[in-house]
Amino acid sequence: MRTRLTEHVKDRLGTFALTWPSIAQCAVGAALAWIVAVRLLGHPRPFFAPISVLICVGVGLGQRLRRVAELIVGVSLGVGVGDLLVAWIGSGPWQIALVVALAMAIAVLLDGGALFVAQAGSSAVLVATLVPVEGAGGLDRMADALTGGVIGIAAVALMPASPFTIAGKHLSDVLDALSTALERAAEAIEKRDVDLAADALEAARGTQALVEELEKALETSKEITTISPMHWHRRARLARYEAAVLPVDLAMRNVRVLCRRTLASLGEASPPPAALAEAMREVSEAALLLQLELGAGREPTLARQALLAVAARERPEHLGFSAHVIIAQLRSVVVDLLEATGMEHEAATATLTPLDEGAA
Questions:
Q1: Is the per-residue pLDDT at 358 higher than 50?
Q2: Cα torsion at 167, 173, 174, 178 (round to 10°)?
Q3: 150 in Cβ contact with 72 (< 8 Å)
Q4: Full DSSP string of 203-258
Q5: Please, which residues bridge with residue 359 across strands?
Q6: Which of 106, 189, 298, 313 has the greatest number of beta carbons closer than 10 A?
Q7: Element spanning 127, H or E
Q8: Could you tell me the keywords of this UniProt record (predicted)?
Q9: How far is CA 132 from CA 87, 139, 140, in A?
Q10: What is the CATH number of the domain that holds 283?
């Protein structure tokens, strides 16, 4: 129980370490947006300005530039429809229903994203309930939304989270999961333990969410290096992560198949030999090397060398059907990880000794 609590606390602290820059950006940006809208634009209650900052910046991973565009257009649509109808039909329950329905319907017909549609509806609600504010028209509220969006992007640019921390942390999570799955599968083969093989398969099947989070993290990191002048000169380092994401995703998919076949193989008359488990463990260690070298911003030469050694290893003889499948998947994982180190696909494939010569 205590171990689980400790792991949960560490996980929460790790999440906070990633999100605190966004929290700071939201807090500072919201205050600045209010000040600018009140003192420079002269708006008495510019609630759209700080709200726009929170929506644009957020604390999650995503495409902030797109969110800004959807926010501005969504607010403008909602405010425009709301102002037009409220001025004509007044404010009340059925008027709110009509305003929201029309604003969201128009947003959907314009092929807007989820944020666009939701923002159009929520803006219409605000217009129909909180307004009219004295002297505040639709153009004022649109200006507030634009102000908040611009300040939100400025906060991301001038108070940026580290794009390498974001991308590196999520890539590290995937590579760690990949390494763990291979290690468990190797141990299952060595101990002829079906339960261990089942655990390895279950762990591997649960990694797709990590891969999806990695893809979002990379988009966020690329966006930060685009927006923030502080990181323009370091885009080459992020390119290493970008080149690694797809191959690592493919490697993880192949590991899932490998784990499934490992479980099946332990029920065969000729289970996989211990030598195959050793090769799996070497690939597992190479994945950890890749994790460390990319995290340190270095060329992953050690990981590449470890993978090349596995690629040149001879295949054990007298294998059953499942063992042959495991070897085929392991070879695919090696190629995928070599590509993640920066090798081209053809060059990575060429490092494998042909199977018809009895090598792995």
A1: no
A2: 150
A3: no
A4: HHHTTHHHHHHHHHHHHHHHHHHHH-GGGGGGHHHHHHHHHHHHHHHHHHHHHHHH
A5: 314
A6: 189
A7: helix 114-129
A8: Membrane, Transmembrane, Transmembrane helix
A9: 9, 13, 12
A10: 1.20.58.220
Query: Which distant-in-sequence residues (6+ apart) come within 8 Å of 241 by Cβ?
Result: 164, 167, 168, 171, 218, 221, 294
Domain containing 154 equals 20-158
183 and 303 both lie in a single domain:
yes
Comparing 47-56, 104-113, 132-141, 350-359, which segment has the lowest mean pLDDT?
132-141
Go through 281-294 and write b for each residue having 16 or more CB atoms within 10 A of its CB, e for each that does not: bbbbbbbbbbbebb
pLDDT digits (tens, 9 = 90+) for 131-162: 554 545 566 777 887 788 788 877 777 766 66
Which of 101, 130, 158 finishes a domain?
A: 158
Task: Enter the tokens of residue 344.
Answer: 């081209």
CA atoms in the 13 A half-sphere facing the CB of 148: 30
Residues 6 or more apart whose CB falls under 8 angstroms from that of 354 comprise none
The total of structural domains in the chain comes to: 2
Q: Determine the 3-state secondary structure of 310 from DSSP.
A: helix
Question: Reduced to 3 states, what is the DSSP secondary structure of residue 80?
Answer: helix
Please provide the size of the chain in residues: 360
Instruction: Rounding to the nearest 10 degrees, give the CA dihedral for residues 353, 357, 359, 360.
Output: 60
- Asked whether residue 154 falls in the same domain as residue 181, the answer is no
